[in-house]
Here is the input.
Amino acid sequence: MTECSQQTFDFHFLNRRKIVGRFDGGSITSDAGALLLRETEMRTRIVAQFAGCFKDYRDQDLIEHTVGQLVAQRVYGLALGYEDLNDHDQLRADPLLAVLVEHPDPLGKERRRMQDRGKALAGKSTLNRLELTPADANAQSRYQKVVYNRPAIEDLFVELFLQAHTAPPQELVLDLDATDDPLYGNQQGRFFHGYYREYCYLPLYIFCGEHLLCARLRPANIDGAAGALKQLKRIVAQIRERWPAVKIIVRGDSGFCREGLMAWCENNGIFYIFGLARNVRLEKELVSEMAQAKAEFERANRAARVFKDFMYQTLLSWSCARRVVGKAEYLEKGANPRFVVTNLPAQEQTAQTLYEDTYCARGEMENRIKEQQLYLFADRTSTATLRANQLRLWFSSIAYVLMHALRRLGLTGTILQTAQCQTIRLKLLKIGAQIKVTVRKVWLALAEGYPYKELFADVYRRLQAVPLRC
Here is the structure.
């Protein structure tokens, strides 16, 4: 028998030492820190609960990858920075990822087909079928047979938020926002958006602090607030079923200042604060305040603000007069009046506190949306159908929820307690390790040169202190 020789790479000398490289290190992974994500999953069952929202019509005697494994493979891949399905044709041979998805044969030695031996996980084609399954698929369908349950997934995000609290909070602030998801193909629901000046989707997000409650993909040829009331009704009902006495404040920019939303909040004991687009009538209300701000700016040569609290009603669209707070601001570039409308009582929050502390805090939600889009690839909506792209958005959303759970349970009190997903990934999850799988154990020899060993050990101890979730 001939003996295959490894290719050797001779690099430039280090003084008199030769530098030689060969691909003979055995099973090595660059993502050993993801075991902390697995520990988080064991204590939250976020991915498992998400997998429970799928109906599998496949013949169970013929499959090698369960729905739970397929879903987990996709979610962990996104969390580790692998945004494309094509990546999984290489990742399927990674024993560490197989461990993460609870595969009983991490090395893939027992695969049925010879060409699959050594590759424990699913390839891109199998994962692609998971995404492309139509809503009406059943056991008689030829290829795509794993159907997701849209209402169950939408309710799950709220349920995970409720599970994250051991006691009901006194007050919740629900942030609403729409953003652009650029498209570069002919995807279903693709339209040009005049504000963003591009072809895109217009997803609706609802957050409570750092907790994601809703990620609904929408075409771009609609009003930015379209569907927001429906989602708000669903979320509030689910929250109040568990916490009937909690105070709820809804917050959004002027794109959500709609009569339907405000009237529903007023009739259901919900407080709101929305941006209000300025007009001539509103600006007249701030004439004297703007003069004061301008005088202060000229005197101190710095930005000046004066606030005014007043009642206002539109000529046609509003059903009643509402409390409006106006900000008369004067900057180097000139006057900058801004307005918000609210049903929060004036005795509870002054005009300045309402605007600067309550309304302006909504900017933090935009950071969470950017975090998901930039680092967890929520904008990889390149499949043909809106339904499949919605599932991709949910995969990214579950990856965000899992990463946030790691941040909440394991990183609080550490130097990474406010870190974004990319920083957590690079400093905590991307660790080189050699893997050895035996009958009874999976051994990981972590890189000795890893610079954050103490942080890793600290996070591990914090996670171990959290009870497992059955």
Notes: The chain has two domains: 28-150+376-464, 164-373.
